[in-house]
């Protein structure tokens, strides 16, 4: 499955637009990640726990997106947009939302 942020796939022609597809993933941020992130804020460096959580959420959202596109018989998803949000009471959740257009290619 080709997934791209562009509105076309180089060297291929879009023959049919199948509709919008989306993938979402929401992950909780636990107290240990918060603690280690606070330490990183003080001493500097990257917050690995948060990075891992975002990476996992992004991969799950892309898998959800491609599964939805396959169900429509798509060869690709074009015009993909990835958004990140912080949700929940005291910002305890991270959400990744991915949207695009499922298409068939020649």
UniProtKB/TrEMBL annotation:
Coiled coil: none annotated. Pfam families: YbjQ_1. InterPro entries: UPF0145_dom_sf, UPF0145_YbjQ-like. PANTHER family: UPF0145 PROTEIN YBJQ. Belongs to the UPF0145 family. This is UPF0145 protein EJ903_06220.
